[in-house]
Design goal:
The chain has helices at 16-32, 48-67, 69-77, 84-100, 105-115, 127-132, 149-161, 171-186, 188-193; strands at 135-140, 143-148. The protein has 199 residues and is mostly helical. The protein has one domain. Strands 1-2 form a two-stranded antiparallel sheet. Strand 1 (135-140) and strand 2 form a beta hairpin.
Length: 199
C-alpha cells in the first residue's frame, strides 16, 4: 500500500540504504498511480494524492542522494546486485527518475538542499508550506534565476494531470515505470508482498 514506512526488520538483499531507496520508490509509484481529480481554474487545488505523491517522490530522491547513486551502481558492478543486466536496469532507471520529473537539476537541488527535511521528521511534514512561501536561486543552463516555490508546486499539479505544457508527454507514466523498476530490483520481496510482480 502507498505510504508504508520502512520498519526495523525490513530486509533487502542489498543493505538498509538500498531498502530505503527501494521502498520509497514503490511508495512514490503507488501514489503517482492514484488518478487525481481535475480541480481546474485559476488556482488549482491540491488533494491528498498530490501531497503524498510529491512527498514520496522527494523521499525517494532524498534517499538516492543519501545512499549515493554511485555507490548503489558500484555495488552492481561488484556483483552485489546480481547479473550485469540488473546493474544496467538500475543505472537507467535511477537516471530516468530525474529525467521524467517536472524539475530541472537546479530546481531539484534547491528543493532537496534548501528545504527538504529528512523523511519522517516533524519538519518534513511542513515542506509544502515552506516551498509555497519561498523562492529559490538556481543555476540552470549556465545562468542564475529565481524560481518561486509556488511555481514548482503548480508545475507538479499540472504534471500529475499531464495538462498544460505536459499534455501528451506521458512523462508521469514513464516516471512511475522507473520507480517501480527500482523497487523491483532493490526490494523484490516488498513488491511481492504488495501483490506486484518482479521481472
Amino acid at each position: 500500500m502507498a505510504g508504508e514506512r520502512l520498519g526495523q526488520q525490513q530486509v533487502s538483499p542489498y543493505g538498509e540504504m538500498a531498502a530505503r531507496v527501494g521502498v520509497a520508490a514503490l511508495d512514490a509509484e503507488a501514489w503517482l498511480s492514484v488518478d487525481p481529480n481535475w480541480h481546474g481554474g485559476k488556482k488549482p487545488r491540491w488533494e491528498e494524492s498530490d501531497h503524498e505523491s510529491f512527498h514520496r517522490t522527494m523521499d525517494c530522491i532524498y534517499w538516492i542522494r543519501e545512499a549515493g547513486a554511485s555507490r548503489l551502481i558500484e555495488g552492481t558492478i561488484q556483483g552485489r546486485f546480481g547479473p550485469r543486466h540488473e546493474h544496467d536496469r538500475l543505472v537507467a532507471n535511477l537516471g530516468n527518475v530525474h529525467r521524467y520529473l517536472p524539475f530541472d537539476d537546479g530546481e531539484r537541488g534547491w528543493l532537496l538542499h534548501g528545504l527538504y527535511a529528512r523523511p519522517g521528521s516533524v519538519e518534513h511534514f511542513k515542506t509544502i508550506h515552506q516551498i509555497s512561501c519561498s523562492a529559490g536561486h538556481v543555476e540552470s543552463s549556465g545562468r542564475m534565476r529565481t524560481v518561486p516555490g509556488k511555481e514548482l508546486l503548480d508545475r507538479w499539479w499540472a504534471w500529475r494531470r499531464q495538462t498544460r505544457e505536459f499534455e501528451g508527454e506521458g512523462s508521469v507514466i514513464y516516471a512511475q515505470h522507473s520507480l517501480q523498476t527500482i523497487g523491483e530490483i532493490l526490494v523484490p520481496s516488498v513488491v511481492k508482498e504488495r501483490g506486484g510482480t518482479t521481472t
